Structure formats: structure tokens, C-alpha cells
Amino acid sequence: MALPQLIPSHSSSSLTHQPSINPNAANPYPMLKSFLKPSSLSQSRRFHRLSSLRASASSFPDNHQTDPSKPDDVVELPIFPLPLVLFPGAILPLQIFEFRYRIMMHTLLHTDLRFGVIYSDSVTGTTDVGCVGEIVKHERLVDDRFFLICKGQERFRITNVVRTKPYLVAEVNWLEDRPSGDEDLEGLASEVETYMKDVIRLSNRLNGKPEKETLDLRRNLFPTPFSFFVGSTFEGAPREQQALLELEDTATRLKREKETLRNTLNYLSAASAVKDVFPSS
């Protein structure tokens, strides 16, 4: 039987496939894990190798102009284009072996340990909204490669490219969610958590796993960080994740996640019913 997939809340031409959900993602709250094929799953658990970034810098022009009178809220940040989306609070393991990024690591390990992660792929190119990754643990190997464990921090928007060699450095502005007015954020977060638990329960059933009670997914998180955690579990759908990361309203983000999870739950319910009728499917 085909593995279940997320059904996005917003149909978009930019999405070339349906996102997957990850019930045990490698993040600070490992509760959700995607229905990936075994080969894809083993790949997602390995350190992300940065060899795929060799062409990423070409997305930015070499000729650029910096504004000498930049505002105080604009900062310079070294940038990693990656084929993934980092959310605030999420954990990202990386293996650094390409020469220019080893140069970056030597610089970062003697400064503030922070760099920007932006999503990049061959179809949509490089985005201008990303998330700061802070190095929380590192190991330098004898051949000058690095193993890193990073944690997502603030979101940012690139406003200007300072340079592209030996690695990308950009000026960025910080992004924060706007106040949600009269929206019941706690209520929305609770609804999203309920849908997540139901999706995990049904997906475990479809995969022949025990339908044990799901633990507290929120872990006392406020609605905004919880919405980022939910987005981080939508592995296999980086463009949908990027759309969630770019939203600047917690209520809108939670509503979109709720609709996606509700559609997915409907799909899983139908798949479960089919399995009951045709157990060998």
C-alpha cells in the first residue's frame, strides 16, 4: 500500500509533490516522522553534505553595491544555501568538507558561531528568507572537515549581498511575527496538536505500529514557537515549509498547518478504512 502523504492546505504550482509528515523528526521535540521511503529516510538522518552547494552562489550576482549608510537594524551574516528549511528551535546536523565552507567555519568558531541558512533548489532558485543557525556543538577532524550540530534561532530576510566569494555574506533584517489581534492562538495551537496526535495514531496503525498514546507535543511551548515546531516536522516538503517560515503571523501559520493536518487525517482515515476491508493492500 502506498505510504500516506500530507495534503497541503494551499495548492500551489510551486509544489511539485505532496509533502510528507515526520512523526520523529530530528529536532528538540522528536514526535513526528515523515513517511519517506527507506532510502530517503536513511539519507535524511545523515549529516547534510554541503557539496550540493557548489552552484548555489551563482544565484547571486558577483557585482553588487553596499550601502555605506546602512541602518542599525541591518547586520551582515554569512550564508549557507541548503536544500532544506531550518526553523527556529529546530536542530540541524551538518558535515562541512568543501573548502570555502571550511574557511567559514574557521571564522565562525572564532567569532559568534552564527550563520544564515536559506533554502535553495534547482527549480525555484535561492530564497531571501531564512533562519539563523547557531553552532551548539562541533568536532574538527584530522582532514579539516567539521561535524556540526546547529540550532535554529531568529528568522531573517536578505536585503543586500555583500560578497559571494569565498562564501556568501549578506546584509539581513530580522523578521518577527506581527500581533495576531483577537485571534485565539492558544485555541488554534491546541487544535493543531490534536490533529497531529490523530495523524500520528493513524499513521502508526497503517504502518503496523502500536497505537500507543501520544505524549504532550507542545512541551509548554507558546503558540509561535509551537507553530515553528509543527512546520519543522513537514519534512519532504521544503517549499511548503518555506512558505510557513516566511509567514509573519502566528495565527495564519497555525491555520495553514491545521488545514494541512486535517486534510492528511482525512486521507489517512480513508486509507485505514481501505486497509480494514482489504488487509493485504
From TrEMBL:
Pfam families linked: LON_substr_bdg
Keywords: Coiled coil
Start and end residues of each Lon N-terminal domain: 74-265
Compositional bias of kind Low complexity: 1-21
InterPro entries: Lon_prtase_N (IPR003111), Lon_prtase_N_sf (IPR046336), PUA-like_sf (IPR015947)
Recorded coiled-coil stretches: 237-271
Top-level taxon in the UniProt lineage: Eukaryota
Region (Disordered) residue spans: 1-23
Protein name: Lon N-terminal domain-containing protein
Source species of the chain: Gossypium davidsonii (Davidson's cotton)
